[in-house]
Recover the amino acids of this structure.
């Protein structure tokens, strides 16, 4: 799927699951049934939820930049709506990873609003760089609690995250030359996706 990967993988956690969380107030059973069905369908056919939403948008003739929209939506998510990604272990290292991953995603979600103001955006870039370093430090702390193959899997996730962090940095350099904002949105979504992958790996290997 190439550059479509982050947007296709984030439709379920950033758009659909939060809506289903809201639905729980009115019909818990229906919400849980839909959540299970859509999660299972996404696992079987990655990108299916993206195709569903994109199809509705096309049918309704609504022009939407999905990359920009998902980035903005990431910043509106409540703690309850992010429960699927939250680490439940009580040790400080795991709670710090929760905080640092949430902080990075929150800063990245501001990009669409700040990218056109050069001075503000340059400050935001500094915040992102700092948040990336803090997240990596938190991952290192958690890895000390992760045994054997779990530690190897987490190291692999960390290497992937670093790769996409460097790609994000290069995309920013290109943006200041070429002015292609959508490329920055896509690269930011990759970072959010990689952050989520770290959390999923920790949950599966350490909880």
């Amino acid at each position: 799927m190439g550059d479509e990967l982050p947007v296709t993988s984030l439709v379920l956690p950033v758009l659909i699951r939060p809506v289903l969380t809201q639905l729980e107030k009115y019909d818990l059973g229906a919400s849980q049934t839909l959540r299970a069905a859509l999660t299972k369908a996404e696992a079987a056919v990655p990108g299916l939820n993206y195709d569903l939403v994109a199809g509705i948008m096309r049918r309704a003739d609504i022009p939407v930049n999905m990359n920009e929209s998902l980035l903005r939506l990431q910043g509106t998510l409540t703690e309850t709506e992010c429960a699927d990604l939250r680490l439940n272990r009580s040790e400080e290292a795991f709670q710090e990873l929760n905080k640092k991953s949430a902080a990075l995603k929150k800063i990245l979600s501001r990009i669409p609003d700040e990218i056109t103001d050069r001075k503000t955006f340059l400050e935001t870039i500094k915040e992102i760089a700092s948040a990336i370093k803090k997240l990596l430090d938190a991952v290192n702390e958690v890895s000390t609690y992760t045994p054997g193959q779990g530690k190897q899997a987490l190291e692999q996730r960390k290497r992937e995250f670093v790769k996409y962090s460097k790609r994000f940095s290069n995309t920013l350099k290109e943006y200041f030359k070429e002015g292609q904002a959508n490329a920055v949105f896509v690269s930011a979504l990759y970072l959010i996706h990689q952050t989520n992958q770290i959390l999923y790996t920790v949950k599966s290997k350490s909880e």
